[in-house]
Amino acid sequence: MTQQVLRLQEHYHGLNAFDEDIVLIAGGYDKNLDYEPLAKPIVDKVKALILIGQTAGKIFEVVKNESEIQNRDIPIYMCNSLEETVELANKISKPGNVVLFSPASASFDMFKDFADRGNQFKNLVNKL
């Protein structure tokens, strides 16, 4: 099984793990993955989408296309930093919502590795 398939399966399972409204944070380093398979699950399950990193534009396009097919409006936000992303997620989420950090992309565009990205995210959330 390829790394791409595993990454997309992890993302899909993350979305399906919750019944609550989801504010999804996604995006990262572009390894030329096909994000089309994520579009329908995102449109089906996500209340708001926050994108970051090199893949933000690719994910935006496939989700926008799927939302038009389904005639469903999903707010999509583009951010330039993880700090901006966490602040926005805190602002737009409501009590009972799940803020899910499931990048579906590699971390190398803004971070040393996945652990660095996760630790920075955790530190930013703990400062709220």
The CATH first-level class comes to: Alpha Beta
Mean pLDDT: 81
Q: Helix and strand succession?
A: HEHEHEHEH
Strand order of the largest sheet: 3-2-1-4
What would you give as the CATH superfamily?
Mur ligase, C-terminal domain
Count of strand segments = 4
End-to-end separation in angstroms reads: 39 Å
Summed up, the helix count is: 5
Give the name of the CATH architecture: Alpha-Beta Complex
Poorly predicted ranges: 1-6
Helix content: 40-55%
Please outline the major beta sheet.
4 strands, parallel
Number of domains: 1
Please name the defining characteristics of this protein.
single chain, disordered N terminus, 128 residues, 4 strands, alpha/beta
Give an account of the 3D structure.
It is a single chain. The protein has 128 residues and is an alpha/beta fold. It has one domain (3-126): Protein-Tyrosine Phosphatase, Chain A, CATH 3.90.190. The chain has 5 helices and 4 strands, in the order αβαβαβαβα. It has helices at residues 3-16, 36-45, 56-69, 82-92, 114-126, and strands at 22-26, 46-51, 76-78, 98-101. The chain is globular, with a radius of gyration of 14 Å.
